[in-house]
Amino acid sequence: MQKQVVVIAGPSGSGKNVIIEEIIRSYPNCARLVTATTRAKRPGEVDGVDYHFFSQERFDSELTSGNIPEHRFVPGLGTYYGTYIPDLEERVAQGKIVFAQVDIEGARLLKKKYGAVTIFIMPESIGQFKTRLRARSPEWSKKEFEERMRISEDELRLHAPQYDYRVVNADGALKNTVDEVIAILKKEGYNL
Questions:
Q1: What backbone torsions phi and psi does residue 89 show, to the nearest 5 degrees?
Q2: 167/173 Cα distance (integer angstroms)
Q3: What is the pLDDT of residues 97-118, one digit of tens each?
Q4: Starting from the edge strand earliest in sequence, which strands make up the sheet with 71-74, in order?
Q5: What does the pLDDT look like over 127-173, one tens digit per residue?
Q6: Contact (Cβ atoms closer than 8 angstroms) between residue 188 and residue 111
Q7: In 3D, which of 124, 86, 123, 81 has the Cα closest to residue 104?
Q8: Sorting pLDDT into bands at 50, 70 and 90, what band is 48?
Q9: Rounded Cα gap, residues 79 and 182, in angstroms
Q10: Strands 5-9, 117-122: parallel, antiparallel or unpaired by DSSP?
């Protein structure tokens, strides 16, 4: 079976989006899985490109129909996120290597169903990470920032060890991080 699905995970602000964007820019046969969410669009985001922005009713309907086989609710944010299988299946059918940015449940599902290699992007340190996260999203309230930090610390402590690989994304070292991820994919048999 040709390997086509890769999980790139990590806490909010770890750099996983930029890493995926850099790889997609360099390798045209790569694409990003667009997941579903009930959160509102942020300025500049596009439905079907950044996320599939669903109403709660549509999200529930997609869950019931099996199109979202795994999801999570973030209580502090009041938001659902889920792996949207129709998007994944369409990209796999096109022969793309699909980068999925999902949590541990999504990683387990994609590993089992699609043989995905799972990579967790780690910050250099919690202090550096807090600074990066605050700079990235200054519009967040103190409550939202603290909730995101709590979620991130849980991910680092509980979930990171469950991934196939852990890659540190140090400030100013994006090229090294991308090169390390590409080396892992080539070693794992992805046809970049």
A1: -60, -40
A2: 12
A3: 999 988 888 999 999 999 999 9
A4: 52-53, 36-37, 79-82, 71-74
A5: 777 777 777 777 878 888 888 788 788 888 889 999 999 999 988 89
A6: no
A7: 81
A8: very high
A9: 32
A10: parallel
State the Cα–Cα distance between residues 86 and 169, nearest whole angstrom: 31
Q: What is the pLDDT of residue 103?
A: 84
Total count of residues recorded for the chain: 192
Alpha-carbon distance 103 to 67, whole Å?
A: 17
Q: What are phi and psi of 114, to 5 degrees?
A: -125, 0
The phi and psi torsions of 28 (rounded to 5 degrees) equal -65, -15
Among 14-28, 44-58, 137-151, the minimum mean pLDDT is found in 137-151
Query: DSSP characters for 137-152?
Result: -TTS-HHHHHHHHHHH
Residues 6+ apart with CB under 8 A from 7: 99, 100, 101, 102, 106, 107, 110, 111, 116, 117, 118, 119, 163
Q: If DSSP codes are grouped into helix, strand and coil, which group holds residue 186?
A: helix
Q: What are phi and psi of 55, to 5 degrees?
A: -70, 165
Work out the widest C-alpha separation in the chain, in whole angstroms.
47
Angle at 28 between CA 26 and CA 29, to 5 degrees: 125
CB count within 10 Å of CB 188 equals 15
Dist CA 53 CA 47 (whole Å): 6
Residue appearing with tokens 């922005």 = 53
Predicted confidence at residue 133, as pLDDT, reads 74
